[in-house]
Amino acid sequence: MTIPATVPDLEEVTGLSAAPLEPWEVVVWNDPVNLMSYVVRVFRTYFGYSLDRATTLMLAVHHDGHAIVATGPRETMEVHAQAMHDYGLWATVRKSSS
């Protein structure tokens, strides 16, 4: 078996580098269904947030219509958004603006 002529020399491949990780966000949106106490419980149970942090996020959802509840790699944020859906909350994933 012969090596095809299209295989690059190892010397030619040294300039490769990984793309930088860009942060993504999980946004939880207000809905007319879930009680505020339930949303606090979800944030505490799933994310492990303190009562104060979970309450602050819930109030942002309630008053502002949404809150960023987590930031990180896209795949992880997609898992978190799906978990919020599983709890009955409306959540989306978006690229971080910062």
UniProtKB/TrEMBL annotation:
One of its GO terms (molecular function) is peptidase activity. Transmembrane segments: none annotated. Residues 22-92 form the Adaptor protein ClpS core domain. InterPro entries: ClpS (IPR022935), ClpS_core (IPR003769), Ribosomal_bL12_C/ClpS-like (IPR014719). The keyword Protease applies. Keywords: Hydrolase, Protease. SUPFAM superfamilies: ClpS-like. One of its GO terms (biological process) is proteolysis. NCBIfam families: PRK00033.1-1. Involved in the modulation of the specificity of the ClpAP-mediated ATP-dependent protein degradation. Binds to the N-terminal domain of the chaperone ClpA. Belongs to the ClpS family. This is ATP-dependent Clp protease adapter protein ClpS. It comes from Microbacterium oxydans. The lineage of its organism: Bacteria, Bacillati, Actinomycetota, Actinomycetes, Micrococcales.
